[in-house]
Design a protein that fits this description.
The chain is an alpha+beta fold. The protein folds into two domains: about 60 residues, no CATH class; about 100 residues. Helix 1 runs parallel beside helix 2. It starts with a helix and ends in a 12-residue tail after the last strand.
């Protein structure tokens, strides 16, 4: 009985406290005073049980009045918050299949075709462009002297032909490392600040390169594609 009483007392206190928070909107319900016995009752006696029953009834009545007041004020009843739904986990994407040998071969063929197209465009300009004698002569001399320096060790200039916007260089190499450094070495020469592309070749067992070098501030005459 004492355990039940204390449990209801807790609920009654919470309800009355909640109603007190809304006191500006309504009157606080009156609680019925609990009459006390003039004489102390022995624990477990009929008088003690009757006193507890009366106190319990008074507390229940106070709880009912407090709940009625809360409903009148529009206080919603507390409801348990539902647990959040678990987030959907996206399925991992399957790894892309490695390209087949046929696909790689097709890509390499397309690259070769594109290289031939670019070289055909450059060769057409080199054969048809008029010659700017002043710029062409100075640039050919500059390139020739550059290949005499230590920066181009392992590479030999066999031909240089400059026009108005572009020069064509033919170079032989003693080893692959010298060919790999050719473009970077050319662009470090003072006075050669244009664009450059190189077409390597191993025909006849020789390491050779053909370089197309544009005039400073001029782009190479190549059709750009996405």
């Amino acid at each position: 009985m004492r355990q039940v009483r204390w449990g209801i007392l807790g609920l009654a206190t919470a309800a009355v406290a909640a109603a007190g928070g809304w006191s500006t909107w309504g009157a606080t319900p009156e609680t019925t005073p609990v009459r006390t016995q003039a004489t102390e009752a022995q624990p477990g006696s009929p008088a003690d049980l009757a006193s507890e029953v009366r106190a319990l009834r008074a507390e229940v009545e106070a709880l009912r009045r407090g709940q009625s007041q809360l409903r009148h004020l529009g206080v919603p009843e507390a409801r348990p918050t539902p647990p959040p739904e678990p987030a959907e986990v996206a399925a991992p994407e399957a790894p892309a299949a490695p390209p087949t040998a046929q696909t790689l071969a097709a890509v390499e063929v397309a690259r070769d075709e594109r290289r031939h197209e670019l070289e055909a465009e450059l060769q057409a300009v080199a054969h048809t462009e008029p010659r700017d004698r002043e710029w062409a002569g100075q640039t050919e001399t500059l390139v020739t002297h550059a290949f005499d320096g230590p920066r181009f060790a392992g590479s030999r200039l066999t031909r240089v032909d400059c026009r108005t916007r572009m020069c064509v260089l033919e170079v032989e190499h003693d080893e692959a490392e010298a060919r790999a450094e050719l473009l970077s070495s050319l662009l470090m020469v003072k006075g050669l600040q244009g664009q450059a592309v190189m077409r390597p070749s191993d025909a006849g067992g020789r390491l050779t390169s053909r370089v197309y070098l544009s005039r400073a501030g001029e782009p190479l005459p190549m059709t750009l594609r996405q």
